[in-house]
Amino acid sequence: LHQAQATISFGDSEPPTLSIQPRYIQVNEGERAELRCIVEGRPTPTITWTKKSNLPLPDYAYTDETGVLRFESATLDDQSDYFCRASNSEGTTELRTIIYVRPRGPPTITVTPGTRVVSIVGSRVFMECVATGEPTPTVSWKSGQRRRSDVLPEASDPGAGSAQLLFERVSFSQAGTYICEASNDYGSSTEIVVLEVNDEDSTAQGIRGASIEGPERQTLTVGQSAELRCIADGLVNPRYNWRRPGGLALPPGHSVRNGILYIPNIEAEDSGEYICTIYSDPYRPDLPLQENKASVYIIVTVTPRAIIYPSGGMTAVADTSFFLNCTVQGPGPYEIEWRKEPGPLSPMARDENGVLSIDRVAVTDAGTYICVVTSPNGVTIEESTTVRVY
């Protein structure tokens, strides 16, 4: 009796490995969002998609056995973390991605220094209109009343995301309403600014005996502190008084000491004229108090805002992947880079267009991650989040 034995081999079994393409996606509200989970393994793994917190996908989400996840018309509710899970007899692997959905709608407008600007005839007046929205809005100024055709074009600077309006020496004829218009593919918005021009004594622009340290026009960024120093030149027993024209109040939290006006946290509405009046004793007792004035114009620019997603920190599992996305709200362009504390970024880290990703997370990757945003004029803002690894 002869026996024979044969073994049929189908190859070694392998646990699933997977990747997601694209790594993350950002779409406008109403646009299609599509991700593909690419899986390898033996036996062929099954693929399932879930939403954050293991929630099921909405009924209108499309998936198939090839790993596609598709939203034909993404809504704001669809912005979330999504997980692709691949399973076979050798194990289960999971990978996270994010769908970002930009809201659809007309631009949102912010005007600086505000919707009412009070100035002195002959002074410099600066107004800025910043609009946010996707796509980036086109912004321009126009006059609210009929004027000579050469008034506004000489003073206006339209652009993408923001527009400026500058009067080097404002006149009574330039008082009135000015309209900022912003538009993109989803609509347009307007904001009306009323410019008031008051008649003040010519000494408000500064005469011998009173001056303000620094340039007549100073530019600050929201959140900065300001120190305006009023100087009395040769005046006897000077007493200082700071005010804003048109009855506008000085900024909250301000203080005045020895002629110095200190503003701890300047805001956009604090833009405008600041007048220092110095009262001093006369050189002869039969004369009234002497009054000297000087003024400075403060321009406050709106600081862009950095947003990190996911917000509130995150927890990553060692040997898996994670990524952080830093976006900027406000007119650009901006340079975005990431840094980590403590220590440098992992050699495995990739930093592309504000997205920081690490494919194989190590315990040493835990720490504080800081998104650094730099504007063309050198202004830097930072936003941070914490990553925990276990």
TrEMBL record:
<dbReference type="InterPro" id="IPR036179">
    <property type="entry name" value="Ig-like_dom_sf"/>
</dbReference>
<dbReference type="GO" id="GO:0070593">
    <property type="term" value="P:dendrite self-avoidance"/>
</dbReference>
<feature type="domain" description="Ig-like">
    <location>
        <begin position="16"/>
        <end position="99"/>
    </location>
</feature>
<dbReference type="InterPro" id="IPR013783">
    <property type="entry name" value="Ig-like_fold"/>
</dbReference>
<dbReference type="InterPro" id="IPR007110">
    <property type="entry name" value="Ig-like_dom"/>
</dbReference>
<feature type="domain" description="Ig-like">
    <location>
        <begin position="304"/>
        <end position="388"/>
    </location>
</feature>
<protein>
    <recommendedName>
        <fullName>Ig-like domain-containing protein</fullName>
    </recommendedName>
</protein>
<feature type="region of interest" description="Disordered">
    <location>
        <begin position="137"/>
        <end position="159"/>
    </location>
</feature>
<dbReference type="GO" id="GO:0007156">
    <property type="term" value="P:homophilic cell adhesion via plasma membrane adhesion molecules"/>
</dbReference>
<feature type="domain" description="Ig-like">
    <location>
        <begin position="107"/>
        <end position="198"/>
    </location>
</feature>
<keyword id="KW-1015">Disulfide bond</keyword>
<dbReference type="GO" id="GO:0030424">
    <property type="term" value="C:axon"/>
</dbReference>
<dbReference type="Pfam" id="PF13927">
    <property type="entry name" value="Ig_3"/>
</dbReference>
<dbReference type="InterPro" id="IPR003598">
    <property type="entry name" value="Ig_sub2"/>
</dbReference>
<keyword id="KW-0393">Immunoglobulin domain</keyword>
<feature type="domain" description="Ig-like">
    <location>
        <begin position="223"/>
        <end position="295"/>
    </location>
</feature>
<dbReference type="GO" id="GO:0098632">
    <property type="term" value="F:cell-cell adhesion mediator activity"/>
</dbReference>
<dbReference type="InterPro" id="IPR003599">
    <property type="entry name" value="Ig_sub"/>
</dbReference>
<dbReference type="GO" id="GO:0005886">
    <property type="term" value="C:plasma membrane"/>
</dbReference>
<dbReference type="GO" id="GO:0007411">
    <property type="term" value="P:axon guidance"/>
</dbReference>
